[in-house]
Structure formats: structure tokens, C-alpha cells
């Protein structure tokens, strides 16, 4: 029952999507009638996303505690970045080889630039806007995030003088997240109507594209889980490191799959890490921080979303776009993943950075639902092997007091 409760919303959304797709296929006239309900759902999200981003980003920075940067924390960040980069590059190569989405025949209309601007022009347009009102739009996610981060940094640096604003930001973040909860109450109806209309317009190609994405993600994700994590464990401790890692991975893996939550897996990871040879000074820092910042499964999902979005609008896979795809996937999986309710922000960031129409937002959100179980498994269990590599790099002695888990008979 706990597993069903953890996946209840995801199951309900999948049922709504399947039912909507069936209506779109068998009753396109009905799909056209209920299409405004899908538009209403999108409009509600677009109205809330700006205050959500501002309050979430600003409050998370303004409320963060200062700490002394040590070699452990620096090495932790380096390991996080390294594994994220490996996940992004290898998944991109794999997806380009199997081509799960390009050429699917789904062409969405959108305001796309006819000419590709220079790199400097594109960077300026991506990270800035000409005026403050233009920043208060879901079409300017990165400028809004930069402004929000600047507000949070300034508030934190002011100390006691900035504390009143910090309290307002924290309260605003909670209110914005509650508003998102309200909107998600109508998500099944909204997605039902949206997919009914989309399938009626695109035909069966959409279902085929999702099926191929599902197969591609789970094939690569499973290989990354076994081969990638084994490689990281070998780097951390050779053959013995691989043995220690996998002999203590059952409980964290089952917890991640059963709860569908990286945070819920933190206590189990902290218990397993010392038996993998990770000293407490490392595991007590790397694992909690990793639950927020280290998300290889989400990085791989970011690559999938970028390639899927490019295929929706039939954009060529140029070298510039592929390089940007790697950067965006790390941004989506690591930076935005650390923001409360960052998932919706991630999809909008993918579309806006590449200059695509936001009408494709629900199509990308569905990918998160499809990949969620395996993504959570990779996100959660990857923190243990990262802690092993950090321990090897800083050469701290292993925790000799670690014991095997108690077995109840």
C-alpha cells in the first residue's frame, strides 16, 4: 500500500493521459470540444510559475547556512559535476545512436528563429531581458532565476538587516508551492483534455514516440546503474570497492523504488555508506547534499527531454545544439533539481533556452512521469558511490565501527 501511495499521483496522471489519448484517437470531435480545459490547465501553471521560481530560488539562497569550504566539500562538488557530465555525454551518445524520437512525424507550430544568432547574441538573449516587466514572464526563466538568486544572495549577505525579507521569501515560497498543489488537483482533467486534443491533431505518432523514449531511457538507465556505478566503485576502491558497494545496495535501492523519493532514501544511505568504507565525515556531508544536488537520473532525463523537444519542432541536431543539450541537461538535473517544485521549471527552461513554443510543456512533463521510478533510483543510490569516490580522493580512513545490518528473525 505504501508503494501505491507513493506513486498515486503518477498513476492517476498516466491513466488520464491514456484515456485522453484514446478519446483523441477514437473521438476527435469530442477532443476538440474539451481542448479549452487543457488550455486552462496550462494557463494556471503559467500564472503561478513566475512567483514560484522567484520565491523558491530567493528563499533557498537567503535561508542557507554559511559553512567553511573544506577539501571534502570541494571534492564533493567536483565528483557531482564529473558524474553528471558523464551521465549527460554518455546518454546523449546512446540516444543519438538509437534515435528514439527524431523523425517521429510530430510537428508542432512555434515561433522559432529562422536564422541562428551568434553565440554571444544567444547568450545575452538567454540570460538577460531589456526590462524588469519582461522578466516577469514564464518565457524568461533564466533571467528570472538569475535575478532571484541575486536577491537571495543580497538578503543573506545583509544578515540581520535582511532577515525580515528572508522571512517574507520563505513564506512566499510556501504559499507558491501550495498554489501549485491546488493546480495539480485539476492536472488529471487538464492532461486528459490536452492529450485528447494533441492526439487528435498528431495521430498515433505521439504514443509511438513515448514508447520508444520509455524503452531507450530504461535501457540506458539500467546499464548506467550497473555498469556506471560499478565503474565509479572500482575507481573508489578497486575490486573490493565494487564488492562493498553492491553488497550493501539492496536496502537503498528498494527504498528508492518503494518511496519514489530521494530524501526518503537519505537515512538508509547514511546507514549503508560506512559499510561501503565511507568515513562518517564524508557520508554525513555528501549524502544529504547529494540528495539535493547529485541527480544523474534527472540529468539523463534532461537529455531525453531536450532531444524529444528538438524532434517535436523538427530542429536539426547541430553541434551547437548538442553541446547546449549537455549544459541544459546538467542545469535541469542539478541546479533546477535543487529548487522545490523544480520539475515544472525544468521543462519550461528546456523550451525557453532553445526558443521553443511553450505549448509543448505537457508533452515534456509526461516524460518525468514515465522515467520517475528509475530516475529516483539513480538519483538516490548514486550518492553512495559518489561518497566512496570523495573518500578515495581526500584519503580519509574508513569507519571501522560500521557493522552489518541487524537481521530480524
UniProtKB/TrEMBL annotation:
<feature type="transmembrane region" description="Helical">
    <location>
        <begin position="217"/>
        <end position="237"/>
    </location>
</feature>
<dbReference type="GO" id="GO:0006835">
    <property type="term" value="P:dicarboxylic acid transport"/>
</dbReference>
<keyword id="KW-0812">Transmembrane</keyword>
<protein>
    <submittedName>
        <fullName>Dicarboxylate/amino acid:cation symporter</fullName>
    </submittedName>
</protein>
<dbReference type="InterPro" id="IPR036458">
    <property type="entry name" value="Na:dicarbo_symporter_sf"/>
</dbReference>
<dbReference type="InterPro" id="IPR001991">
    <property type="entry name" value="Na-dicarboxylate_symporter"/>
</dbReference>
<keyword id="KW-0813">Transport</keyword>
<feature type="transmembrane region" description="Helical">
    <location>
        <begin position="179"/>
        <end position="197"/>
    </location>
</feature>
<feature type="transmembrane region" description="Helical">
    <location>
        <begin position="348"/>
        <end position="371"/>
    </location>
</feature>
<keyword id="KW-0472">Membrane</keyword>
<keyword id="KW-1133">Transmembrane helix</keyword>
<keyword id="KW-1003">Cell membrane</keyword>
<feature type="transmembrane region" description="Helical">
    <location>
        <begin position="74"/>
        <end position="98"/>
    </location>
</feature>
<dbReference type="GO" id="GO:0005886">
    <property type="term" value="C:plasma membrane"/>
</dbReference>
<feature type="transmembrane region" description="Helical">
    <location>
        <begin position="322"/>
        <end position="342"/>
    </location>
</feature>
<feature type="transmembrane region" description="Helical">
    <location>
        <begin position="41"/>
        <end position="62"/>
    </location>
</feature>
<feature type="transmembrane region" description="Helical">
    <location>
        <begin position="140"/>
        <end position="158"/>
    </location>
</feature>
<dbReference type="GO" id="GO:0015293">
    <property type="term" value="F:symporter activity"/>
</dbReference>
<dbReference type="Pfam" id="PF00375">
    <property type="entry name" value="SDF"/>
</dbReference>
Amino acid at each position: 500500500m505504501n508503494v501505491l501511495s507513493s506513486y498515486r499521483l503518477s498513476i492517476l496522471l498516466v491513466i488520464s493521459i491514456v484515456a485522453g489519448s484514446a478519446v483523441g484517437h477514437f473521438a476527435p470531435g469530442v477532443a476538440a470540444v474539451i481542448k479549452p480545459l487543457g488550455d486552462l490547465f496550462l494557463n494556471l501553471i503559467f500564472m503561478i510559475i513566475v512567483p514560484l521560481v522567484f520565491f523558491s530560488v530567493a528563499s533557498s539562497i537567503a535561508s542557507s547556512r554559511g559553512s567553511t569550504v573544506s577539501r571534502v566539500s570541494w571534492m564533493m562538488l567536483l565528483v557531482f559535476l564529473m558524474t553528471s557530465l558523464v551521465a549527460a555525454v554518455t546518454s546523449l551518445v546512446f540516444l543519438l545512436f538509437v534515435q528514439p524520437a527524431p523523425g517521429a512525424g510530430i510537428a508542432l507550430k512555434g515561433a522559432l528563429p529562422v536564422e541562428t544568432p551568434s553565440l554571444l547574441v544567444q547568450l545575452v538573449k538567454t540570460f538577460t531581458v531589456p526590462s524588469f516587466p519582461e522578466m516577469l514572464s514564464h518565457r524568461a526563466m533564466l533571467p528570472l532565476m538569475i535575478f532571484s538568486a541575486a536577491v537571495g544572495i543580497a538578503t543573506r549577505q545583509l544578515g540581520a538587516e535582511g532577515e525580515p525579507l528572508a522571512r517574507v521569501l520563505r513564506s512566499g515560497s510556501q504559499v507558491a508551492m501550495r498554489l501549485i498543489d491546488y493546480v495539480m488537483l485539476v492536472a488529471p482533467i487538464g492532461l486528459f483534455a490536452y492529450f485528447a486534443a494533441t492526439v487528435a491533431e498528431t495521430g498515433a505518432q505521439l504514443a509511438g514516440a513515448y514508447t520508444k523514449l520509455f524503452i531507450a531511457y530504461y535501457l540506458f538507465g539500467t546499464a548506467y546503474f550497473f555498469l556506471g556505478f560499478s565503474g565509479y566503485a572500482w575507481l573508489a576502491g578497486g575490486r573490493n570497492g565494487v564488492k562493498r558497494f553492491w553488497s550493501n545496495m539492496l536496502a537503498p535501492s528498494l527504498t528508492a523504488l518503494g518511496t519514489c523519493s530521494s530524501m526518503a532514501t537519505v537515512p538508509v544511505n547514511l546507514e549503508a555508506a560506512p559499510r561501503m568504507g565511507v568515513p562518517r565525515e564524508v557520508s554525513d556531508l555528501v549524502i544529504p547534499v547529494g540528495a539535493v544536488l547529485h541527480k544523474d537520473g534527472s540529468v539523463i532525463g534532461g537529455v531525453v527531454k531536450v532531444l524529444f523537444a528538438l524532434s517535436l519542432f523538427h530542429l536539426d541536431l547541430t553541434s551547437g545544439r548538442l553541446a547546449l543539450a549537455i549544459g541544459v541537461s546538467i542545469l535541469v538535473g542539478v541546479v533546477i533539481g535543487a529548487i522545490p517544485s523544480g520539475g515544472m521549471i525544468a521543462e519550461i527552461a528546456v523550451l525557453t533556452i532553445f526558443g521553443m513554443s511553450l505549448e509543448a510543456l505537457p508533452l515534456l512533463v509526461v516524460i518525468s512521469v514515465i522515467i520517475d521510478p528509475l530516475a529516483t533510483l539513480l538519483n538516490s543510490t548514486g550518492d553512495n558511490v559518489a561518497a566512496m569516490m570523495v573518500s578515495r580522493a581526500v584519503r580519509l580512513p574508513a569507519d571501522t565501527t560500521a557493522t552489518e545490518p541487524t537481521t530480524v528473525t
